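Sequence in, structure out. Go.
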Amino acid sequence: MLNVNDVKWTETLSFRLSTLGVLVADQYAQTLAVHDLKPKHVGLLEVLGSGLAVSQLEIAKRMRVAPSLVVSLADHLESMGAIERLRDPADRRRQILSLTGEGRDLLAECTAKALVLDAKLAADLTSSQHAALSEALSRLAASYGLPVRE
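Output:
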């Protein structure tokens, strides 16, 4: 293990990941702006599209955000025709969200934009470096309880 005096703060994994994360998140947010969306809107679409959760409360837990934020995100997506809200017949207090066809198309467009950004981000990596980075990020995400592709 390195001694704290041997490493600059800017060389730490924490600094580099957080700085790169902010830069990439900003770039992705700019690409989504054409759809009047933010990354969390796409996160909600993905949760619904993958079947990970359907109620607003379950979605909030899955996304690790306040339930009130899910309500706001859902309001916007519903006004765009991307999702539908239905009352759960078994529990009238519970709102069930589902993707519409338009929502599936929107999610596909946002995913395509992310793939373009991924290609730019990895442009200077060899294929083995890209694979290693993907594997490392998957392991880190899993260790934090985030969904990862098997």
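Check: Helices lie at 13-32, 39-50, 56-63, 67-79, 101-121, 127-143. The first strand starts at residue 83 and ends at 88.
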